[in-house]
Design goal:
The chain has a domain of 34 residues. By secondary structure, it is mainly β. Helix content is 0%, strand content 41%.
Length: 70
């Protein structure tokens, strides 16, 4: 549902969130994912670059994804 002018945005009302990971050297997109029921908190993800993983906090748990460095 769109937010109208003058209405307050509440992160808890989000139904999904999208994440994209890009390589810093050339901007190439390495990974993209949408999650249902994201956590209403800020900074609800963590990147483990040495392990090539992304962890995303949702309302029901933590989703872990593998990220290719190619």
């Amino acid at each position: 549902m769109p937010i109208l002018a003058g209405e307050t945005f509440h992160p808890a009302e989000l139904q999904e969130a999208g994440f994209n990971i890009h390589r810093a050297i050339d901007g190439m997109r390495l990974f993209g994912e949408h999650v249902k029921d994201p956590s209403p908190s800020a900074n609800d993800y963590a990147i483990f670059s040495g392990a090539g993983q992304l962890a995303v906090l949702t309302r029901s748990g933590i989703n872990v994804y593998s990220i290719s460095g190619n």
